[in-house]
Amino acid sequence: MVDALLRSLSVGRACAIFDGGLGKFDIAAICHEVRCVNAQVGETFCITLSDAEQRVAGDELHSLGTVAIAKSQAEDGILVLKVWATRDTPPFSKHAEKRPVGEVRIPLRHLSDLCNCMLYFTWVNLESAGLNDSVAHLGYGNPFAANSSESFLQGIMSNPRQLMHPKACISLCRADQLAETDRLLWTKDLPRQDRVKRWGPLLRSQQQHAVMCTAQNLEAAQQQNGSGFLPQRLMHLRAQADEQAQEIELLQEQLQSASRSTTAPTSAEALDVLLNGGGDQWRQKPSMTLLEERTSRQLEEARGLAMQTEAALARRGREAEAHKELELQQSLSAQLRGELQSYEVELSKLGEEANNKIEAANIRIRALRRERDEASRALADRKEGNQKLQVLLQELEDEKSQLAQQKETLMRMVEDLHTCCNEAGLPAADRASIDSISGFKLPG
């Protein structure tokens, strides 16, 4: 419904404020190189990026090697990358004159399932610009929409072998995965998680370039050898066919000359021929016809044999190419298995180290827990001892206060006795003992 409203208002989804961002993401694409495309003198190549339903305007021109951003792409959408030829120079104007060169349609859902929504220096075939739209406009539906995933995968797999087909080398990823805003280049110092995530697209690119190099080497070898790529048997058969053709032409000339010389004989000549047994000359015509037919059959057989030999050689060439590609794939598989084993060994080492660290951490945790429990018990014992000391201190303070009261009472009693002695006139001979008693003080 949102798309229909946007189309009715002639507004792109990138300009919509009510998109909501549900299942939408931005796509960054770079076209590195274009090959096997007819270019006129003074023309340069550029690209535009849009979706198949034209929900996002894709009229901005980008030169080769620069990043193009497609805004708010749906997960099940089809991204259209078009290549144009123009005489304008960067930065390109939207109104610059340009002519379409080709286009490639990329199903985003299939790309996400195939290689994590990434392409890295991958060659794709360029189809005729607007071909799918024209077929759909004629009422035959969109053939690309029905088998977009299969067509896209088949194009990536068969592209390296089609050396003369128009093609483009592109890289594609989510816009938020760009390391830098102006280029897309993966280096070996990336984090391990990013390298694991980008391993699939990188491996696919390496396999595609390996197959393309093999195909180019085979073609270069055939061009250097010229016609020598056919075996000697094929050349011998062709020479034999040419010789038989010359013999047939010679026999046809002899037959024509013989027929001209025997078409209109005089009566005397005919009588002489009959008398001299010249009927054998008249019987030469059927024998010449049989010879011509037999020679024609031999020529046809030779040509058929030559064609069969060519087909067998072509089949052997395809089998040899398939065998080489199989060997290449086997070597790549062996290399990948070796890398997988190394990764498994590294993973086992990391797992062992992690287990050792976890075991050491568990031992340390158990020791800390024991120390914590011992400290808790010691703290409880000290608290209990402090409480006992506080009770004992309180008892001592109470006893001190009682002794102080008893001392005061005794002092008053002594003073009373001294006063009574003085009043009674008793001698003060024992006064020193009383002073010592009155001067006695308890330690504070």
From TrEMBL:
Keywords of this entry: Coiled coil
Q: Does the keyword Coiled coil apply?
A: yes
- UniProt feature coiled coil, ranges: 234-261, 333-416
Q: Does the keyword Coiled coil apply?
A: yes
* Name of this protein: Uso1 protein
User: Which species is this record about?
Assistant: Symbiodinium pilosum
Q: Give the source lineage, highest ranks first.
A: Eukaryota, Sar, Alveolata, Dinophyceae, Suessiales
